Amino acid sequence: MTSAPTTYDDLQTAITGKYDNLPGQLQKFGRFALEHPDTVAMETVTYVAEKADVQPSTIVRFAKAFEFDGFSDLQRLFRARLMKDTSSYRDRIQNLQSEGREGIASILDEFSGTGIEALDQLRRNTPPAKLTQAVEILRDARDIHLLAQGRSYAVAQYLHYALSRLEIRCLLADGAGGMLRHQIARVDPDDAVIAISFAPYTPAVVDLMSEVSDTGCKMIAITDSPLSPLVARSSVSFEIKNGSDQTFRTLVAPICLAQTLVVGLGQALSLNEKSLT
After folding, report:
1. Which of 59, 171, 220, 271 reaches 20 to 30 Å from 131, CA-CA?
2. What is the CATH classification number for the domain harbouring 147?
3. What's the domain range around 41?
4. Beta-carbon neighbour count of residue 188 at 10 Å?
5. What does the pLDDT read at residue 91?
């Protein structure tokens, strides 16, 4: 008989580990819970069920599947996670939305608020150990390969530009001329791959990441959920949640993470050079 997880991190690990074996409705709520932890922490079971598009009884069954007595017992971990960092930008976001404003100005307010919220979540939910591990992988790689398509491509393109300015060998798998598979086939066991994809995940990126993992190279995933298909194949993954439920995903947080990795890598290489002199 296993016991219920005692921390949010333990719960996240448990959900990820059991996800494939859960019934469909429990999978649906499990994904919602990991993607909207603040909602689960602060709202009633009825409201959460409505937002997750499941029945309240499904949430209770989900809680019991992980050895909790019920929703309140499960919710306690989500609330503990939220209380770890009380400095939230939520009030600032609301202040950005001026009453009575319409047109393009209100759109700017909405996107600015969403970006701020996404950045705050990135800051609060990214362990320093993950950043260090990713920088070490990039520092030790012979070549760095960048894999992204669609809306995620802008992040990979920025990484290609910034890493090239550091005079680091990097290859952008852009798929020009239908050569995506050929481009990524150059990956060597001594290389590193940064794969970027958000739901709905680009099939080509998911399939190629699965194939490349057989080479034994180190892989870094930039995605949006612990349940993303990129996570299972990666050496280290960053799950960046969107700031709000919007049609257009903000790329503010992924670009910020990319800049952090580039600057961190530059500092690591500088330290190496100093140690050799």
Report:
1. 171
2. 3.40.50.10490
3. 8-83
4. 12
5. 52
For 187-200, the pLDDT digits (tens) are 999 999 999 998 88
CA dihedral angle for residue 206, residue 211, residue 216, residue 218, rounded to 10 degrees: -20
Q: How far is CA 84 from the centre of its chain?
A: 20
Sheet holding 170-173, edge to edge: 170-173, 144-148, 192-196, 218-223, 236-239
Q: Of 193, 198, 196, 197, nearest to 219 (Cα)?
A: 193
> How many CB atoms are located within 10 Å of the residue 242 CB?
19
The single-letter code of the amino acid at 200 is P
Give how far Cα 134 sits from Cα of 146, 147, 237, 265, Å: 14, 16, 9, 9
Q: Are residues 27 and 155 in the same domain?
A: no
Side-chain-side CA neighbours of 150 within 13 Å: the count stands at: 14
Q: What residues are paired with 171 via a beta bridge? A: 145
